[in-house]
Amino acid sequence: MYAVVGASGNTGGATARALLSVGAAVRAVVRDAARAEALKTKGAEVAVADLDDVDSLARAFEGARAAYVLNPPAYTDPDLFARARTLAGNVAEAVRRSGLPRLVVLSSMGAHLGAGSGNIGTNRIFERALAVPGCATVFLRPAYFMENWAWVAPVAAQAGVLPSFLLPTDRAIPMVAAADIGSLAARALQDASLSGVIQLEGPRPCSADDAAGAFAAALGRPVAAAPVPEEEWGPNLEKSGFTPRTIAAWVEMFRGFNSGAIGFEARGTPPVRGTVSLGEAVRGIVARR
Ligand SMILES: NC(=O)c1ccc[n+]([C@@H]2O[C@H](COP(=O)([O-])OP(=O)(O)OC[C@H]3O[C@@H](n4cnc5c(N)ncnc54)[C@H](OP(=O)(O)O)[C@@H]3O)[C@@H](O)[C@H]2O)c1
Questions:
Q1: Which end of the chain is least crowded, N or C, by CB within 10 Å?
Q2: What is the CA(121)–ligand 1 centre distance, in A?
Q3: What phi, psi does 62 have (nearest 5°)?
Q4: CB–CB of 141/199 below 8 Å?
Q5: CB of 246 closer than 6 angstroms to any ligand 1 atom
Q6: How does pLDDT run across 213-227, given as a tens digit for each residue?
Q7: Where exactly are the structural domains of the chain?
Q8: In this structure, which topology does domain 2-288 adopt according to CATH?
Q9: 221 CA to centre of ligand 1 in angstroms
Q10: Is 10 touching ligand 1 by the criterion CB < 6 Å?
Q11: What is the mean pLDDT of residues 230-242?
Q12: pLDDT value at position 289?
């Protein structure tokens, strides 16, 4: 049985579905059992646990062949880095207490960077804390999520513009769909021959202009990418309730993407290529709205 933390979310849900699709036994680890109803219907066992509560997490890991964990976004927390340190420490302790033999940790492209990567620094904290002796660990470092465009999907649908912090809008960067992350995570949970860092990207790099084109096709209306100038990033993020520390981290991260400073680790194994196109991912975003 494989325990999946964050099973009610984007990548955890995709991981649980990928495991269930090959007949593997899944324990969906959620804070609220109601959020795992769909997975339960597909055959998953449900365990209620919180990354803030080591006892509940250790119980959720007990008897599992492997577990999938992530650092949940904490953008409204006063200090997202301190939060990541606490949660990573809790996971490490739960791994020790439960004797979990194998762990797949969702990290990020750019987690090898010691500075200048903004909130990707939280993924680096997770990687460093989760090399637990006695537990085989895989660190999945996916590219920029195609599903990030869901944040601005309502604007695309209503106004025909796709606001973008990725600048210039015709510059392509590696992007990947949650479904590809779920498939690879499911493989990494089951296949003991996989270990260490695995980088992951989609079929080809994509730009904000490509995303606008994908929304135009999915919505059946013209959509154009609208560059958001850097001086407007902070005020925009403030409206979403982000704390000053988070805003500074996001600004640093998007500067890093836009300058090319954030990318895959060149010294590492070349990224695995997923199969889900930006068009398919955006059709999924539009269908779920
Ligand atoms: N966005 C990108 O481009 C990108 C790229 C690379 C890596 N990443 C990394 O991806 C991660 C986010 O993954 P995601 O998109 O799958 O996240 P997500 O969709 O926001 O899901 C987060 C999950 O964590 C659960 N959760 C939140 N707090 C919890 C707690 N205290 N205890 C237990 N579960 C908790 C949530 O459950 P509830 O339903 O209870 O809220 C939810 O299921 C981040 O670490 C980010 O750095 C992101």
A1: C
A2: 15
A3: -60, 130
A4: yes
A5: no
A6: 999 999 999 999 999
A7: 2-288
A8: Rossmann fold (3.40.50)
A9: 31
A10: yes
A11: 96
A12: 86
